[in-house]
Amino acid sequence: MKDIVFCSNNCFVLYSAAVQAKSSENKESVPSLPQSPMKERPPKAFHQYSNNISTLDVHCLPQLQDKVSPSSSPPIIFPPAFEAAKVEAKPDELKVTVKLKPKLKAIHSSLDDCRPPSKKWKGMKWKKWSIQIVIPKGSFKPPCEEEIDEFLKKLGTTLKPDPVPKDYRKCCFCHEEGDGLTDGPARLLNLDLDLWVHLNCALWSTEVYETQAGALINVELALRRGLQMKCMFCHKMGATSGCHRLRCTNIYHFTCAIKAQCMFFKDKTMLCPMHKPKGTHEQELSYFAVFRRVYVQRDEVRQIASIVQRGERDHTFRVGSLIFHAVGQLLPQQMQAFHSSKALFPVGYEASRLYWSMRYANRRCRYLCSIEEKDGLPLFVIKVVEQGHEDLVLTDTTPK
After folding, report:
1. Cα separations in angstroms, 21 against 26, 50, 203
2. Same domain (yes/no): 199, 281
3. Cα–Cα distance between 331 and 343 in angstroms, integer?
4. Is 52 helix (H, G, I), strand (E, B) or coil?
5. Structural contact between residues 364 and 357, judged by C-beta atoms closer than 8 angstroms
6. Nearest to 169 by CA among 180, 158, 161
7. Is residue 77 in some structural domain?
8. CATH at 384
9. How far is residue 268's CA from residue 284's CA, in Å, rounded to a whole number?
10. 326 within some domain
11. Is residue 245 a part of any domain in this protein?
């Protein structure tokens, strides 16, 4: 039979099967340990060690009972999670009910994770903020617009343009200055040199009709007739919108017809207050805004010829920021050198334009452009007129 080696407490024991048989014979002489409350198991081999240790059951050690210390109150037994544990006590003692919730065990990877969890608010999804504004008592005067403008000018960061000059253009029909309301006389249209008419004043004239391209025909004819017709509302000349009722002689300006509560229809007819139907009408027009392209049909060649023939005049011809002052003239011997494939360069031409300054980023100044003659060739001159600086003159042989 082979020998077997066991290791326990750093001591090596060598024994054979014969020693095992001898230990079984001396089993009765070994003092018995207190029996454990566990169930009896099948007998196992006991081995005796040579290191002055009592013989123990290596495979199954006995379980010692814990000493229970006397307690004044009955112990509380905690049940599993989400269950209420009721402690059975005597009738004279207090009954305690405890509810526990499961707590997730988190593995802390660093020291920062060991911080105590912050308090969470339950059942609260929003908060009310109360703002209280306290105005001190005293004579506080808010700054006016002039003071604000002066302050912004000192900073030099404003891009406020110069105040726009008043529009002195007058309508030849209603004699009102400037563009009208969109839902009223509407914008001004150019009829001739320094002759302007409101869009609706011309459109609602009896003789005028509109083409599919947006041209207004017979505007000049209506204007000549209006010079002799007096308005029934304001008693001034220039009325061209008459009542559509047969043999009715009431005639109004377009703006006066609105004030007199005349009724307008979609077929471009109008009835005066004496002949209009009572109540509302299906074909009644209550909105006069015109957003389509509309212009006055005119002879442009004749208009340009009239500008050249008048010479010195007090009229102003303006296109956007370009103000036209003089056309100039060309003599027969100058025709070869004073033109290009796209433009003519008449001597004496003069125009001015309001544009951004070359010195300041937030200012505008006036540029006076003219054409002169030098050595039989055109000379283009630009004079920069700016307040607070001397006039700067720039010249070149080409308009570019």
Report:
1. 9, 16, 135
2. yes
3. 16
4. coil
5. yes
6. 180
7. no
8. 3.30.160.360
9. 10
10. yes
11. yes
Q: By residue range, what is the domain housing residue 366?
A: 313-396
- Is 206 within the bounds of a domain? yes
Query: Could you say which of 235, 266, 296 is where a domain stops?
Result: 296
Give the end of a domain, one of 251, 266, 296: 296
290 and 338 part of one domain: no
Give the total number of structural domains in the chain.
2
pLDDT (tens, 9 = 90+) of the chain, 400 residues, equals: 445 454 444 444 444 444 444 444 444 444 444 454 454 555 555 555 555 555 544 555 555 555 555 555 555 565 554 444 444 444 555 555 655 555 555 555 555 555 666 666 666 666 677 777 776 676 767 888 888 888 877 777 656 666 777 888 899 999 999 888 888 899 999 888 778 999 999 999 999 999 988 899 999 999 999 988 899 999 988 899 999 988 898 999 999 999 999 999 988 899 998 988 887 888 888 888 888 889 888 777 777 777 666 655 566 677 777 888 888 888 888 888 888 888 889 999 999 999 999 998 888 899 999 999 988 899 999 999 998 899 999 999 988 8
Q: Classify the phi-psi angles of 140: left when phi > 0, otherwise alpha if psi is within -120 to 50, otherwise beta.
A: beta
Angle, alpha carbons 170-252-273 (nearest 5°): 145
Question: Reading across the β-sheet that carries 377-385, which strands appear in turn?
Answer: 317-319, 322-326, 350-356, 364-374, 377-385, 392-396
3-class secondary structure, 125:
coil
First to last CA, the chain: 124
- pTM of the shown model: 0.44
Phi-psi bin for 376: left (phi > 0), alpha (psi -120 to 50), beta?
Answer: left
